[in-house]
Amino acid sequence: MPIISAANTKGGVGKTTTAMYLANEYARAGREVTVVDLDKQGSASVWADKASDRGTPLPFAVEVSNTKRISRLADSKGSDHLIVIDTPPGDSSVIEGAIDVSDFVIIPTTPSELDTDRVWETIPTVRDGQLYGVLVASAVLHTRLLNDVITALDENEVSRFKTVVSFAQRYRQAVGYRPRRDATYADVAEEIGAAL
Ligand SMILES: Nc1ncnc2c1ncn2[C@@H]1O[C@H](COP(=O)(O)OP(=O)(O)OP(=O)(O)O)[C@@H](O)[C@H]1O
Ligand SMILES: [Mg+2]
Can you list the residues of the chain whose pLDDT is less than 50? Predict the structure, then answer.
């Protein structure tokens, strides 16, 4: 059962949005998925509860857990079951614990220098040879800022998604609702599938 985590020590870079949209794409493609919420803020679980309360439950499970239980949780699911871990910002022991059990680590970042500085801090947590990809999100396309970030990642031979998630209101509006199909996150899922 592949375990994918969305991790970055920086807050507000799109970890939860990425975990939920990715899980949504996999579920809509017929996969069984569980999002594991490791964040004390509970953003993913609150999102799921709100969607349920509205009568439009998410097409995947969201479970609150902790790093010690992830392996056991993963073992209890079938071999086709996907686990997507949403991690908290700042808490390095939880972030490291999540990365440690992951088959693929997504490191979301926004194209701002303050945020990308933290990518360099998160990358060393990834094990040698472990699959990971920096996902540039909340990006205004065709800007110098975006171009500079992509260039910096490529010059440093950082593994990154070819897919860039643009800044779009629909992602903000989706919190607490069942997300619509999203071609961008479908591409992210496809890139992970190709790597795994
Ligand atoms: N592509 C996007 N375009 C516009 N807004 C976005 C995008 N992705 C995320 N957001 C918004 O940015 C904010 C932060 O996103 P999100 O909660 O996913 O980040 P996070 O890294 O999980 O934050 P935290 O560290 O607090 O857990 C949210 O309001 C979310 O709706
Ligand atoms: Mg979050």
Answer: none
